[in-house]
Amino acid sequence: MTATTPPLYAIGTPGQPWADTEISLWRSQQQIKRSYRELVLQPLFALLQQPEISAQAELIQYGTLDYQQFGLGQYPLYAVRSKDWQAEKPLALVTGGVHGYETSGVLGALDFIGGHFTQYADKDLNLLVLPCISPWGFETINRWNPHAVDPNRSFNAAGRESGLAQEAAAVMQLLQPSVAKVLVHVDLHETTDSDNSEFRPAKAARDGTVNTNWNIPDGFYLVDDLDNPQPAFQRAIIEAVGKVTQIAPADDDGCLIGEVLQQFGVIHYPKKSLGLCGGLTAAKFVTTTEVYPDSPNATPAQCNLAQVTTVVTALEFALATMV
């Protein structure tokens, strides 16, 4: 069997969506487990102080998450972009930490900045890297923000207008002047055991629905855009990452997380209609990574390297189309 029904979630009444009382209870149970400032901002600031990187890159603050109403303080949001920014150039966008708990997406973005940003900054692309879009989620190892809203279902007009997804709204505002220039977008994610043990049951409880868990794929895979499939682009990434870490095999039904395999290591999602970060632009080349950090077959270093390898391969593929 590829599906199991987990126990009922501890918050809420089965079949009834959460109201403010349940959301407040859920929020009160979240605890700070690690430091955004120490693990993300300090390394990021240190990278931008290196002369070879600062010559090619600049650090910008594109917003501040304000959760003081919940007693949670504020979180500054940072991006790194090409210092020699030229508005007429195509844009390469890298996003990490949309789901803050997905650690290698954040650390992989930092590793790309440290190891490869300067390599591509003088090419025919503007570069923009957002290492950690959801810092409260990073600190609490959480998929949602304090409103119990998933930022990765909020990259659309509804998400912006609700006011409940500051994380997505800040990114959309940053990109608005150049969104039409995005050629390639790599969104860095993970699939973890906690997806089944915590986050999918919590979502079903929040929404008043019944949850069915799918087997967690053992390895790396990609999510292509159903409405803009780019099989050669995805295949190039799978082949490159396969030299770094294991690519997830399909389950007995030929699926990954309940979605039919389109090619080895690749499934499709309708990214725009779901409000996913990967559907934020009209970029020709878009992919969402899914790394499995809980696998006995992968180390944290391999997970981070898989993310970096994806970004580098995506950029090389996009640049080759511009020749």
From TrEMBL:
Q: Check the record and name the InterPro entries matching this protein.
A: DUF2817 (IPR021259), Peptidase_M14 (IPR000834)
Select a single GO molecular function from the record's annotations and give it. Answer: hydrolase activity, acting on ester bonds
Q: Name one GO biological process term.
A: proteolysis
What protein name is recorded for this chain?
A: DUF2817 domain-containing protein
Q: Can you give the residue ranges of the Peptidase M14 domain?
A: 32-323
| Top-level taxon of the source organism | Bacteria
Which family is annotated? Belongs to the peptidase M14 family.
Coiled-coil blocks:
none
